[in-house]
Amino acid sequence: MPHAVTGDSTEDGRPGADPRRYPVLIIDDHELFSTTLGLALREEGLDASTLEVDDLQDFLARPPGGPRGLALLDLDLDRDAEGREVDGVDLVTPLRMRGWEVLVVTGGPAQGAVAAAVAAGAMGYVPKWHSFDVLLRRVMAAAEGSILMTQSERQVWLDRYRRDQAEEQQMSHLLSRLTPREREVLELLSTGMRAAAIAEHFVVTMATVRTQIRSILGKLEVGSQLEAVALLRR
Amino acid sequence: MIAILALLTAAIGSAAAVMGPLAGRLGADSRPAWLGVAAGGGVVVVLVEGGLAARAQSPVLSVIALLIPGLVASFLLAALTVVGPVSGRRVAAAVFAVVLVTTATGALGTAFPVPVAALSEATSFRLSLSSLWAGLALAVVVTALDRHERATALVGAGVALLGVVHLAELLLPGLARHVNALTSTGRLLAVALVLVGTLRLIWRALLRIDTQRDTREEELRLAAMRLERTAERDHELRTGLAGLEGATRLLGSGREPGSGDTTPLDALLAAEIRRLEGLLRAPVETSHERPATSYDVEPVLQGLVTLRRVSGMDVRLEVDAGLRAVGSPEALAQVMTNVFANAQRHAPRSPVRVTAMRWNDRVVIRVRDFGRAIAPTLGDRVFETGVREVRAHGSGLGLHVCRRLLAAEHGSIVVRSHPQEESGCTVVVDLPGHRAAAPALAAEVAPCPMP
What we know:
- The complex is a heterodimer.
- Chain A is an alpha/beta fold.
- Chain A has ten helices and five strands, in the order βαβαβαβαβαααααα.
- In chain B, a hairpin with a 2-residue loop joins strand 4 and strand 5.
- Chain B is rod-shaped.
- In chain B, 39% of the residues are buried.
- Classes of the chains: A alpha/beta, B alpha+beta.
């Protein structure tokens, strides 16, 4: 979209931009959200611009030392123009290295990514489904340099992140016991496929798939398909 | 030798008698229970008769020897007439009744030795009882075979063989040594048949229970995943609503967006509302079991193209006449919406050409844009979904979802870049076609007039 303004625009010096407040850079693939928020922040006199997912690579390839400010980072970024999956969490560290404060937003129910982002140095978190006013107020507070997260809140997120890490390690250990075919079967199960459809997919009998599923449950040390799928999706 | 055979027969017979009710209970079928008890009786009669032979005249034993074939016959009658599952209480009551009746008749035998002796001397009476036994068991076999229940027929055949052996002993009272060996072997074979049949019934019932448990577990898994997807969708909708709220507030303030934003806010609003509508319309459930129906491709594409054109995209559409695809139009609409959104994102203001045609028995839809080319090596990976992807949260409906939706419809989606033309890419959606209503020749529909 042509409204995309890359990081340079922070130097444009918009009329009415308050020099005491950070410039805000919105990194979000949800067009309506980023456009609306950008407009609203500019109305409030902030220097707000949006950065498209496709331009992220260029932005991060630039040497550090450019303008800095507050980055509003969506954790549910989709893919860039080259089809690479972009994980918002991976962007926190490079942004921090360039001197940007990072405030993460997410529209999804999962909190694991937020914990990871906080561990990587994000200053705070705003859920997208809050009312627009709340969102706007928090972003403005952050742009004015307020601290959005108390030390104890941060600690809760960090604990959560450590727990997730331990679980992930445990999970990858369990998953490594599976044969490639069992792994495939588990992935298909987790997409919501029925055992009969999986049998059809691999051109094997239903009994074979059942045996594979039992073997998967045994290796993952869980009692039901539901638990096995939850383990993979966690 | 014969003693060993008799011992084996007694052991196997009692095992079969115990497992019969179990098989009946597991399989929700009363026949194995009655047949098992009958087989047990058929084995007991040998012991009684052996005792009778050893101790010459005993009124109690002879009356019991008379009674058992009668009891076996009544069990077989129950097997033939009682339908449906058998309750444990009923079997226990039957066994209790048997013990009671046996004791009573034993007492009767001691009280009136003379008529009992006369009755047990009457060979015709004993023959008719044993014939009834064999006949009823054969009837069980025939009805079971008629219903293709081979395991039950096997059990019935065992009981019938027991009856036949008993009959043979009555008909050949001389009991020469080789006949005795023959009858012992026959009995052993009979109880073995009963046991094998009963075990097969139990095995099959266990397999059935296993399958049922698997099915239930699968339903549970699918239900949980539907819930999870509903939760994701709710978040997505709430996020969308928050965005709409913000946008309408800005519109309400009456101030024009800054010069950097050339996309009119109302177009974005309209697109977002359509996206949310699409989210609500798309089925949350997994779409693997939807019945295969066919639909006209043209109206689906036409509707979407018109929507896009209204929001300012330069789109042209060509569809083969009478083109029908198998699957759900909602899935195609969802996929095409995503494809258009993607084209708009990656090739803004580029003209887009959509063609839909029949290719053998497939429907092929091409969406060509003239924006930036994607790296040829990356083409297909746009749609890849790995474990990471599965674990991604609230990802909304991206291209990987397109691929999943289409896979459920037995279709596919690929992206082709055009390196030689140095611009743009083509998304190719392939769907199963519907032959019936289609004319043989693919006639091209004229491009729709631009509004």
